[in-house]
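FAQ: What does a ligand-bound record look like?

Like this one, built around tryptophan:
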Amino acid sequence: MNKENNGSTPSFTSKIGLVMAAVGSAVGLGNIWKFPYVTGENGGGAFLLVYLACVFLFGLPLLMTEFIVGKHSRKSVYGAFQSIRKNRRWQWLSWSCLIATVLVMSFYFMVTGWCLSYLVDAIAGTISSTEDLSAHFANLSINTSRVLFFCSITVFITALVLWFDVNKGIERLSKILMPLLLVMMFIMAVKVLMLPNSNIGMRFFFETDFSKITPQVILSAMGQCFFSLSIGFGALVTYGAYMPERQNILATSAQVVVLDTLVAVLAGVIVFPAVFAFGLDPAEGPQLVFVVLPSVFEQMSMSRFSSVLFFSLLCIAAITSIISLMEIVIAFISDLGARIKHPINRHKAVVITIAICLISSTLCVMSVCGTPDWLKIAGHDLFECFDAVTSYFLLPLNAFGMALFIGWFVPKQVIEKELHVRPRSLNSTAVSTFRLVIRYLVPIAIAAIFLKEFV
Ligand code: TRP
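The answer part, i.e. the structure of the complex:
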């Protein structure tokens, strides 16, 4: 993190530094791996429309909420709520954020492991569309030792970054690499759109069949929106704590929302036309991009180079998100230590976090690979369970809690102070609109969507 240690609170030295860090945290596997398959499973265009609605209805105000909580309290997600309210009644929200983070981390490592394995295959030139790409993925996903190996490499890389505190370097690197990923995706989209039948895929992705909008689709879209924007984990509370005093929260949040959504939509524009051009099933599930992309690379000039470049960028995007996920836990543990009068220094906190990651991701990998049997819950592997619990339950709950917290329990003056940042100050109508949305619209909509599906 680009910190300037001038006393107690580290802060980002530049406004753009914070935007890049928040975008680096938001853009990751959620956009490129998860968004296409969840869209495919939920009927394409209908899902996209609901997703975009969620991004603007929930995404923007909730990003602002997390930033305000972090910036005002200058604390990690452990101490933020309690420091603003001066009581411990909101402590459950901190713990709930922590649990969501740990659950997501455990499968995020596994999927990053899959990506690394594909990167190695791309370098070795051992994936080609002449073989059965579904079988290639199926073989990988049940190969416990291979997935565990790549998963451990991911843990090891992130451990090195965190241990030596070289986040600054990583951030500088990702300032160059993330735009490169975007350019690469544009080129892939153009190539894909030239394939025969690509228009069927575009219609699948962009044409809305309103009859397909069910409560389940809406709940999935909401969960995906929270996951992709990193809402409900406290990630942006943590970043907000490092925000320069004069940063414009609305502008920062809008930039994160737009860039994150752009990458997700671009991933859809690559994946769906290709799915129909190659005669695949859009509802393939989590293996979707791994089955589709290798065939896309074969259409491109310098196909081996393109696939190596793409998988490298994807791994880097995944690792920057993992680092930000781990940063939440590290800051949480350090603050918890201080609170229980057991000071835990950064290195100790890093070791504890890595141990948690190793254990939870190993369990997840073993469960998906199918050994041993008892690592499944009612026939579902831990990845499916963790994903469902976070997307359908914990993230909506945390978002609901944060909206109530900022809307009803934080004095209006605090919000005004944090949002009225010169030189581009927001006028008071904008502040009242924000309060109206976050007090009524967001919590009522989340509760309604949740109850409609489950009650
Ligand atoms: N938003 C990330 C993605 O789209 C995943 C993610 C979820 C995340 N929660 C997070 C990243 C918390 C950093 C911090 O891939």
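Follow-up question: can I read anything off the structure? Yes, for example: Residues 303-339 form the longest helix (37 residues).
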